[in-house]
Design brief:
heterodimer; A: 99 residues; Histone, subunit A; two-stranded antiparallel sheet; 2 strands; 34% helix; B: 491 residues; alpha/beta; Amidase signature (AS) enzymes; eleven-stranded mixed beta sheet; 39% helix
Chain lengths: 99, 491
């Protein structure tokens, strides 16, 4: 049985903000099924009480001194943006209503 | 000066310090070499001739003024395009960042500049460091100097190929699942993954934040150690950076180069007995192991029962983290924006931008990660993989109570022909079989050339305990002293 269907891949792509094509869905569905069946092998390990590891370095609450430092130059940062206006990033329409 | 491009970094720095060559001459020689061969190799995405010559002139002026030079001053270095360089294009091998010039330097690059090394350019890589061949670079693959019809490894194939083609004596890579070591193995060069947290991730474009580790690439073990010492150490800008000094890697490499390994215990992982590996790779590995025992090392078989689950655990953890990290590519702050016609919503523009800007492997991993993190699947996939990660760490800890380092081949197969593993993505993932356990554990590991199989280089991997990076350099240098460096056919 397939681990993942074409419809599920389409749903996940929407959640991931990827406007995938129909052709990509055809290719990905089979490939992702192979990958998921392979990685599902982690389920063979009996690990009920084992604590999870999120990170190999046991450091917590790393804070640095609260000292003001200059931030990046605004012109250089905005120069790399796809669109900027009035010293800010310009974004496409963010509300559902007609612009 | 004849062959400045064939000197080791240590020898080249010595020649510059003694005034036998200028930093500008050394840089010019490498820029000329790049112009001569990079059309065939395609190791570089961007060559910064003006920046390199300016940096070299500063070294020459400092020397003329009698200033003390660092141990790598004036030596050219190639930087993987995953590290930000202020004002110099940085793409991470992706169309979504095409043309982006970062407003800041990564910590690794800051330290390279402070040490007087000369950054000659940015090297090709699989997109966002996801891949084992550079075939997933949006800018086309890099070719292996040993055989231009074969892959140079990945993701850092550009850095490794630049070394093997004598385009630079030093390079920087980043290793999330083997992206420094596997390219080192298949190009006959040295690649070291430091302890996680031993090198700063500030300015390293994130793939999988709990695994990503920048590190040194070179043609000799001592050169890798010298570069490691320059780039390593605590960085307050990276909250996962370990607040301890860099282990004594240079001294350990020099000690190992004397060829004495008496008292060193090498752990042979019984789960890595060769299943899934090419016979030629296992033969070269076995010969290298014999050489090490002749140098005084003792071989002890150790069992790491959970290593066989490392590959599945990794291919859940890394995509999960990548699906979150790559959410920052939203078409607003940097890079590409597609479909912004004044009518479409932010969400539509974002989806069109990411569709156009990401390649297939990146999309696959984002989708897998989104799946593994979604409610209903989280416990069975991501949560379970994190528990397996704990068990793999315990396997390492138990093994290091009995032995000083673990050893294995770096990768199961030598450089493969282009196109042979792209149609089935899981076949590509198998290249990481031996390198991935270390990433999940967080310890250091190095790949050093140990011989040839069918005329192609084989890498020998040495894995050490966390913050014992010096141990792997000692063993690697000893093996290098017995094997010698590998020289590819002339381009």
């Amino acid at each position: 049985m397939a681990a993942i269907s074409r419809e599920e891949v389409a749903h996940l792509a929407r959640l991931s903000r990827l406007a995938v094509t129909e052709a990509e869905l055809d290719t990905f569905a089979g490939q992702l099924d192979v990958i998921l069946q392979a990685v599902a092998r982690v389920g063979e390990v009996t690990a009920g009480d084992i604590p999870p590891t999120s990170h190999s370095v046991p450091l917590t609450n790393v804070l640095r001194d609260d000292v003001a430092e200059p931030c990046l130059p605004r012109e250089e940062v905005l120069a790399g943006a796809p669109d900027a206006a009035e010293d800010r990033f310009r974004v496409p329409r963010i509300l559902d209503e007609e612009a | 000066m004849t062959d400045l491009i064939r000197l080791s970094a240590a020898d080249l720095a010595g020649a510059i310090a003694r005034g036998e060559a200028s930093a500008v001459e050394a840089t010019r020689a490498h820029l000329d070499r790049i112009a001569e061969v990079d059309g065939q190799v395609a190791a570089f995405l961007h060559v910064d001739e003006a920046g390199a010559l300016a940096a070299a002139e500063r070294v020459d002026r400092a020397r003329a003024a009698g200033e003390e030079l660092g141990p790598l001053a004036g030596v050219p270095v190639a930087v993987k395009d995953v590290l930000t360089t202020r004002g110099v294009p940085t793409t991470a091998g992706s169309k979504i960042l095409e043309g982006w010039r970062p407003p800041y330097d990564s910590t690794i690059v800051q330290r390279l500049r402070a040490a007087g090394t000369v950054i000659v350019g940015k090297t090709n890589m699989d997109e966002f460091a996801m891949g084992s061949s550079t075939e997933y670079s949006a800018y086309g693959p890099t070719r292996n100097p040993w055989d231009l019809g074969r892959i140079p490894g990945g993701s850092g194939g550009g850095s490794a190929a630049a070394l093997a083609a004598y385009e630079a004596p030093l390079a920087i890579g980043s290793d999330t699942g083997g992206s420094i070591r596997q390219p080192g193995a298949v190009t006959g060069t040295v690649g070291a993954k430091p302890t996680y947290g031993g090198t700063s991730r500030y300015g390293l474009i994130a793939f999988s934040s709990s695994l990503d580790t920048p590190g040194p690439c070179a043609r000799t073990v001592v050169d890798a150690a010298l570069l490691h010492a320059v780039i390593g150490g605590h960085d307050r800008r990276d909250s996962t950076s370990i607040p301890q000094p860099v282990p004594e890697v240079v001294a350990a490499a020099r000690r190992g180069a004397t060829g004495d390994l008496s008292g060193v215990r090498l752990g042979l992982v019984s789960q890595f007995s060769g299943e899934g590996a090419e016979p030629g790779v296992m033969a070269a590995f076995g010969e290298a192991l014999e050489r090490l025992t002749k140098l005084g090392a003792e071989v002890v078989e150790v069992s790491c029962p959970h290593f066989e689950y490392a590959l599945p655990a990794y291919y859940l953890i890394a995509p999960s983290e990548c699906s979150s990290n790559l959410a920052r590519f939203d078409g607003v702050r940097y890079g590409l924006r597609v479909g912004d016609d004044g009518q479409r919503s932010l969400e539509e523009v974002m989806s069109l931008t990411r569709e156009a800007g990401f390649g297939p492997e990146v999309k696959r991993r984002i989708i897998i990660g989104t799946y593994a993190l979604s409610s209903g699947y989280y416990d069975a996939y991501y949560g379970q993989a994190q528990k397996v990660r704990t068990l793999i760490t315990r396997d390492f800890t138990a093994a290091f109570e009995r032995v000083d380092v673990l050893v294995s081949p770096t990768t199961p197969f030598v450089a493969f022909p282009f196109g042979s593993r792209t149609s089935d993505p899981y076949q590509m993932y198998l290249a990481d079989l031996f390198t991935i356990p270390t990433n999940l554990y967080g310890g250091p590991a190095i790949s050093v050339p140990c011989g040839l199989s069918d005329g192609l280089p084989v890498g020998f991997q040495i894995m050490a305990p966390t913050m014992a990076d010096d141990r792997m350099y000692r063993v690697a240098a000893a093996l290098e002293s017995a094997v010698g460096t590998l020289t590819p056919p002339a381009l």
